[in-house]
Design a protein that fits this description.
The protein is mainly alpha-helical. It has one domain (3-79). It is 69% helix and 7% strand. The protein is built from three helices and two strands. The chain starts with a strand and ends with a helix.
Amino acid sequence: MPFSYNDDKAIVVYDPDDGDNSRCGSRTCGHAGPYAGSSRRRNRKGIDLERVAGLLEDASRALERAAAIKRFHTQAQKNIEQASDQVRDLVSEVRDALDRLETELQG
C-alpha cells in the first residue's frame, strides 16, 4: 500500500519504478501531505473523517491496481518481443529451407 494513515499520522511508500520523476517520486505524496497537514482543521470543520478515510483507501486501492496493470503491460511487451523474435527465426528457417530446395531442384 503506497499510502497509509492512522489518526493524524500518514506513511507514504516511495516506489522508484512508478514512472513519476517528481521530487517525491510518487503521486501518492500529493495525498499524504494535505492529509497529514490538515487533519486538525478537518476535525474542527466537521468533516466526516471516516468518509475521508474510506476515500483515501479507495484511492490507494486504485493506485495498487494501476501498478498491477503496469506490471501486466510490461510482461505483455516482453511476450510480444519474444513472439516477434520467434516469427523472425521461423521466417529465416523457411527461407533457408526454400533456398536448399531450390538448389536441390536445379542441381
